[in-house]
Amino acid sequence: MAYVGQLETVPANAVLYDVFALDKPTEMGGKSVQIGTLQLDGSFTKSKWGDEQLFFRHQKENDDIKLKPEWDKYVAKCPFFG
């Protein structure tokens, strides 16, 4: 739990990450584009709710392929999930 003390030193409203993504596969000329910024809205706060109830949903890659089927041949296939 030593990281908790480190988190307390992060300034209020700090930018934590700039978020980048490829606009299409590199084999199709894709470029890295900034799609967002993760920035605090105030200071970090300790909370039991955050530890036990706060979760983030991740979009599945298959959903992207449904929208852009031409990208499928450039996506690495997982040997377990195909």
Note the main attributes of this structure:
elongated; about 80 residues; alpha+beta; two-stranded antiparallel sheet
How would you describe the overall organization of this protein?
By secondary structure, this protein is of the alpha+beta class. The chain has one domain. It contains three helices and two strands; from the N terminus they run H-E-E-H-H. A two-stranded antiparallel sheet has the order 1-2. The longest helix has 7 residues.
Write the layout of secondary structure elements.
Layout: H1 2-7, E1 15-22, E2 32-39, H2 48-53, H3 61-67
Antiparallel strand pairs: 1-2
Summed up, the helix count is 3
State the low-pLDDT regions, or none.
none
* Spatial order of the strands forming the largest sheet: 1-2
Run of helices and strands: HEEHH
Summarize the structure.
The protein is an alpha+beta fold.
